[in-house]
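Entry:
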Amino acid sequence: MAEVRVFAGTAGQRFAQKMCADLDVPLSPVKISRFANDCLQAQLLDNCRERDVYLVQPIITPTQENLMELLMMIDAAKGASAQRITAVMPHFAYARSDKKDAPRISIGGRLVADLLETAGANRILTMTLHAPQVHAFFRVPTDQLNALRELASHFTLNDLSKTTVVSPDLGNAKPASAFAKMLGVPVAAAAKERFNDHVEITSLIGDVAGRDIIVLDDEIASGGTIIAILDLLREHGARAVRVVCTHGIFAGDGLYRIAADPDVVEIVTTDTIPSTEMMAHDKLTVISVAPAFAEAVRRIHSGESVSALFDPTHV
């Protein structure tokens, strides 16, 4: 790994430190400065020439600041003659902007993918994009990891004989099925309709009466979808509920709204959103996926297959 250089933007420092500890390589320093006119500048403070460079930066709030930092770091690495530049984004917020669902609307996910390529990124490493089609927005090699194995391992010591995994919408049913298969339990799915100011869960496919529930979602932002499905699960006679997601954004008071529900006994997420680790609640469990990213970096650098890390059915 001597030819590997890992740098991190402001939002990626903690995650990159965990990755580097697992890789047994130092985290190289970055200087992010701001001019009097508010323009950003990024300087990589380590030699990149002919090196395999990994730039760690989750695209999270403040989203535009963190995105611009990443673009600047990519440009700096390109100018420093890096052999290969990989943008490591544990969370890619613009994956929510994935389709034209209104007149004259921008598709931010595709635009940002183009910006990363134009800046000089040769490869993308990310985790659980909000919509499957976003993967195709990137025209450079893109590895999309998932956290299903890490999340499933959290429940291995639990008695799951009366447990059902529930997807909060039909779009997430495939990952939920893979997750349920890992745990050896049945799966159910809800049908969701999103209106301008709220979410409605209109029906539930599968039996949840008298069952303990694990609600699995890719990300939780405001928590509106989870609150809606909790009400429906209660109506159908479900018992204790554990809420599980990869990206715990928990905007505003989202975490506390979910935790306040008496049926929720635990909320499990990963550290792709650094601010989640700073949230304090006795129902919250945060699992690190930095080792999975470190293993992906190791495999990319050595030319090995990365598919085993993002194949949810791989054991």
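The mean pLDDT is 92.
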